[in-house]
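Mods, move this if it's the wrong board.
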Amino acid sequence: MSHLDPYRSAEPRGWDAPEAPVGLPWPERDLEPGQSAHSAPPDTYAPAPDSRTGPLRPGQRPDSFDPDGTDPYGTRPLPGTAEPYRLEGPAAAVSDGAAEPEPPRGRRRPGRRRAGGDRLPSQEVKPSRAGRNLPAAIGVGAVLGATVLVPLFFYLPAFLFVLAAAVAIGSWEMARAVRRSGAHPPLVPLIAGGVLTIGLAWYAGPDALTLGLLVTVAGMAVWRLGDGPGDYRRDLTAATLIAVYVPFLAGFAALLAAAPGDGHLRVLVTLVAVVLSDTGGYAAGANFGKRPMAPSISPKKSWEGFAGSVAASALGSAVLIWTLFDVAPWWGALFGVAIACTAVLGDLAESLIKRDLGVKDMSNLLPGHGGLMDRLDSILFAVPTAYLLLAVFVPVVG
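Not the wrong board. Structure tokens:
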């Protein structure tokens, strides 16, 4: 009994029919030259999808069709049928050239919502030109400012605890970052020595600040001996760098605040100069920045942004120091220029450290800012300069 051969023609095929080369309607890559599709073993046929009955079972031959002449795959007309199989849905539109196929209704990308009859599609939050979430950065900056200014003006001893907490968190972030290079600085004596250094500077002055640094380095050296001699020099070098970079430089902020009579004002003018430098640099760099300042260290910094930092800090410091300390405006402008230069230098220094360590931010503690050290980098380099200049412009009384 003969039946339709979907791979050849509608002519009957029996046992006496001569063998003829078979023309396949699609290329069969698994067949050797001269080999017929019917001579291949059944398991070489890959399961094909069927809109009615589902995928074929492994080993099933795709040569059985419905009696009414329809093709279960919906891809071509059957040989010998009166009418070709009619495509439906998006495939029919594409075949007629009417429209593009609809996108697959699979899983949506995370963070996106498909529009419906009663809701609008969700919009992706685009970062600012500086590459960060500007509303979050402004909100976190306001909270940090309130955390510093409220104790500074209402209860000055509480500022010491805020400064000690900032030193502890900054030391932890730095120790966590340098571990990517293989160094493991001793964290306990580093944080304890940093807090001790801040306290000594607050109560005993500049000499005690240096003493606190020496005690911290000695304590880390002794503590690290307990872990054996392996990589001792590398770990102690990284720990000493962190001790100088974070607690020692932050100790000058304690010296500023501990000045009798006007310590809170000295801290205020320093912080305002740094904030103006950062804001002026951001505004000028985002709108006019074309010539990169240090492309191998920080590609987003430009000379136009640096000019904006210097101009904003100089103008604001001239007005503020003249108002608060009754100092000639040009001395205030000089103070602002020096603070802007050291703040930018501190920012570049931390960018160089992060580039060497292969990190973008020191941590993700502060939304829109990264880590706390990403906010302290400019301040840490600015407070020693502010302490020296204000000691000359506004001598300490008492």
